[in-house]
Design brief:
The structure is a homodimer.
Chain A: H1 3-17, H2 24-35, H3 42-51, H4 58-71, E1 74-77, E2 85-88, E3 96-100, E4 106-109, H5 112-124, E5 128-139, H6 141-145
Helix pairs in contact in A: 1-2, 2-4, 3-4
The structure holds manganese (II) ion (2 copies) and zinc ion (ZN) (2 copies).
One zinc ion binds at residues 100, 102-103, 105, 140, 142-143 of chain B.
The first copy, chain A, binds a DNA duplex through residues 16, 19-26, 41-43, 55-60, 62-63, 82-84, 163, 165, 167-168.
Amino acid sequence: MPAIEREITRFQDFLSRQGQKLTQERTSLVREIFSTHYHFEADELLFKMKQKSVKISRATVYRTLELLVKSGLVRRVHLGEEHYHYEHVRGDSHHDHLVCTACGSVIEFNDPELEQRQLDICARKKFTPTFHNLQILGVCDSCHRKGEQPASPDRVMTIGEGAMKLRK
Amino acid sequence: MPAIEREITRFQDFLSRQGQKLTQERTSLVREIFSTHYHFEADELLFKMKQKSVKISRATVYRTLELLVKSGLVRRVHLGEEHYHYEHVRGDSHHDHLVCTACGSVIEFNDPELEQRQLDICARKKFTPTFHNLQILGVCDSCHRKGEQPASPDRVMTIGEGAMKLRK
DNA sequence: ATGATGTTGAGACTGAGTCTCAGGTGCGGA
DNA sequence: TCCGCACCTGAGACTCAGTCTCAACATCAT
Ligand SMILES: [Mn+2]
Ligand SMILES: [Mn+2]
Ligand SMILES: [Zn+2]
Ligand SMILES: [Zn+2]
């Protein structure tokens, strides 16, 4: 009955449709991913599992994320850094992101008018869109008040704490 | 008098303002970058220089691209692949991209209404934008007519020929 | 319960991008 | 014009995200 169990069932349905199996590792990853709403990196997820003493290899984390993206349970997004971030999907709540280059915070927004305008542009160019990725980088309200300056477009910023790398 | 010389002068101005120097290597890179309009990868640029027997190291290509981005002469964009693409900037012709996941072609568009809508969203969220990155992935007209299917969001596509890697 | 088939973990591997440092170069000042 | 010093370059080591390999293991339809 908890919502997470339902996501696990959806994942199992997806997997069995492809002749694939729901394993302990995959289950605990889904549980972790759906337990909070945030934008995480693959290695960050690996680290969290380690912290919780759930033994899962890097390879399995990456393989499972790929499956979750294919199944539609997880979305892979660019947030202005060099690597991907992931976030779980509930329902079909599409949104895009404002990313603060000063503090790394991420603001989500969903603007139907903006989405429609994109469709109009595609129609005009006879282009059939399948998905899109929009990040607006800048400075959030609280950082702006602190006098933080905007970063230049080549800045590599840090979203959250980062993955606290501890490979090996 | 050729336009390229003007870009080189602008680059030199930028450099000397920082106490940095215009070198042979930097000059020939600017010349190459502004000689055609396309979306290129760093290693692709390196390869082109090799083809033209202009000896430049990988490190210098990356370092110069960073300087060019800082100076505003070059823009770094995400086009749905795992690594960056670059394009030269003439004037302030901001645009975003439609990327065909079937053939890799890139369509540029500039839609003031879309841009304005983004500013409105930022204002509503009290967010001070500095720049943004929008890619719409899908299938272009000619690929659509050939019956090409849209790729899934985790697809890694190939834009252009790729860099024809030949590191070493 | 069983076994065919899919999955896992350790670690090697890849590819883009960064860093180091010894030797080379641009250019402002004399 | 020449000099010197700060800046720049190339070769290759290094980093880091992500992928692959393969022997041992787990899942689940039957
Ligand atoms: Mn989000
Ligand atoms: Mn472009
Ligand atoms: Zn902020
Ligand atoms: Zn196409």
